[in-house]
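Attaching the record inline, Q. Sequence:
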Amino acid sequence: MVGENAVTSKVITQWNQKILFDILDTLHDVVLVIDSDTTIVYANKAYAEMLGVPVSKVLGRRLDMIEPEAALTQVQRTGEVLHNRRSYLSSLGIDVVGSAFPLYEGNTVIGSVGVFKNVSEVVRLTEELRHTRGVADYLQEQLNEREALPFSFQEYIGQNGRLRETLLLAAKVARTDSTVLILGESGVGKEVLARAIHNGSRRRSQHLIKVNCAAIPENLLESELFGYDEGAFTGARKGGKMGKFELAQGGTIFLDEIGDMSLNMQAKVLRVLQEREIERVGGNKTIKLNIRVIAATNKDLAQMIEEGTFRRDLYYRLDIIPLSLPPLRERKDDIPALAAHFLNKYGQQFDNPLLTLAPGTLNLLQAYDWPGNVRELQNVLERASILSDGRDIDPQHLPAPFRREEEHTGTVPEGSGRLKEAVSKLERELMASALTKANGNRSQAMRALGISRRAFYDKLKRYNL
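Structure, as predicted:
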């Protein structure tokens, strides 16, 4: 004997009952077997565990008397196989979902087998799985987003890894009064970063005074920086004039393109950094300063020191916290978000607020090397916004160098049109377009594409967007 589950029937032959029952009793799903008149001839342990009814109470009873509308009785009548059918068990007051199929002896239906589970269990497992995936996706998003930047740094658009490292360091130094040196090519946004540092500091309520050292003639730069007293030189204003250092009192002075200063002016700026005081041109009164200094340059100061065109001692005074901004060609993954920002700006300005990049246009922008960096991208998109008479910025709205690039890349070479490559190209364009239209907001782009968070981030990584 093999216990209470052993019910002699032509549905289940005696010789293999024990092996069969041992296997079925390990399943988490309910297994129910009926014979030709719907008498229940077998139920596994999961029946009792899931439905709360002892197996001994149902064996030998007719299912069509207990549950006339049960899927298993329907299969018995029709011989039809049912898959993933949801049913309500009125005798127990629960919903179940499962499959049922007939058992044949020759061409005769001699019984049926049902395999099902409680819907509430399915819902619970689904919720657990969704929660687990949600936690995993949340953690992944946090890793992607990494540390949040202060509000003052939101003006600097970008999620590129190198850029964010620089911005995170800048956010830390913003809370101090330390001198900052910003390094980077022309057009990378050195002034934007200087403004973010000032606005993130305790001096934010005071002035940020900007000085472009390369734009002011050498013979005027000293009086611009230090001011002058009345009678200091021919044409000096009556009563004298405050210089930029004095105007920055209590706030921040931003010395842009400091690498273009003469050695003579470098020596005078060095004294300001050391002593925190100045004297006006033609004056003899010492003025104490309470200022924060941010300097920037697109020059290689270390090389200039070797060439003797930049003072080593000034460099060491400036280089307390160096911040290096990568050029746009090294952070092309930020182009969709930057483009969306500029198109929104110029769309509002030119009364065309729904401007977006066509996928082919974005491809051209990302293929370009951007010698003028973000400033050049801004100028290109301003021009395109003016030329566009619709919602899309198309390749023909870009300057000639981009259109020539399109001519070179627009012809598909023979043998290169493989389906997988074509699908990947289209998928990347759709991802990039969605990010652009969502102003770089990943959650919005994800919803617009209608894909899961996990799939979205997998494709984001795959296509280096």
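The radius of gyration is 37 Å. The chain has 19 helices and 16 strands.

More tomorrow.
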